[in-house]
Request: fold
Amino acid sequence: MNAFRPASRMRTIPLEGGIREILARATELEKAGRSVIHMEIGRPDFASPDCAVRAAQAALEARDVHYTDMAGTEELRCAIADKLRRENGLDADPAREIVVTAGAIEALMMTFLTVLEPGEEVLVPAPFFPAYADQISLAEGVLVPVPCRLEKDFRLQVEDVAAALSPKSRILLLNTPNNPSGAILHRSDLEALATLAAERNLLVIADECYEKFLYDGTHVSMASLPGMRERTVTINAASKAFSMTGWRVGYAHLPAAIKPYAVKVHQNLSTCACSFAQAGVAEAFRSAEEDVRTMIAEYRRRRDAVVEALRRIPGMEFTVPQGAFYAFPSVRRFGMPDGEFCRYILEEAGVAIVPGSVFGAPGCVRIAYCRSLEDVQEGMRRIAAAISAL
Reply:
């Protein structure tokens, strides 16, 4: 018997076919001398704010390089609480309701492990961030996809959530603005979902990592609605809003009764987030709003360039993304599965994009406009030329 066999919980986790494999093939083509435009990776291309860099440098120079409080430094928890009050309508207690984590990905894993019993179901609007599926499997839960349709602008419909409920339903996971579709949930959508959550005693996990990347409408936090604070965990990070993906600092705002258990899980996942990175993120929350506004304005220009290019491609079906930094058009009319379509675009046009199947939505593709405007325009020109050659 092989002692080094994977645990049974790994059986449902795919090891191939994700975004990283597309990046690997794109890298191979580049090494062979091909020009490749990377529109597969969802990573802001802006520099982190200068104020955050200076604060992290000062922390290093002060030799602030040791463990912090497991829930995060008091400075950062207070900065997060101020942000939640100022921007999200949440009167958060930094001592009792906030846990700083190694990115939003750890905040999500921490939450699933804290509250999810084996076999309980998590209702997830599809398309969805692929890590949700992996994390729910690792926590021995069951992901129940709730399809969101292109003809409805990929907005989650409360009646579809209600139809997906079962006696094992435990969590409703919301991601607005959405990765990969760019869809947003309006206040009326959230109010209807809040009513359903209360009626069926569902916990809500609100992934709000893209809240700053909003081109239409106003962001509303689920936890700010009446009666939802005590049943909502809000997940966010510095990664997208401040272009600080490598700093690995995220957080969860959760009910005080859950926090001690969440901290115990967090302790055994990472102990604490990086000390000097926390200092930089605290300063970003205090001082980097102008950097954010500049970045979002540029992403709006890129979004508009992608939309304009999609409109010129005969047969392309899409909805205008209202948030995040992705377009998610349907490619069903082009006569090949989404994975084959993406391979064709990469090999023929030198543009890396991601199949919708990765996100639980076969037939679509994700186009990330996290490149310069010039690269975005050239990438879309190449995609259009490759489609016209089909």
Q: What stands out?
A: The mean pLDDT is 96.
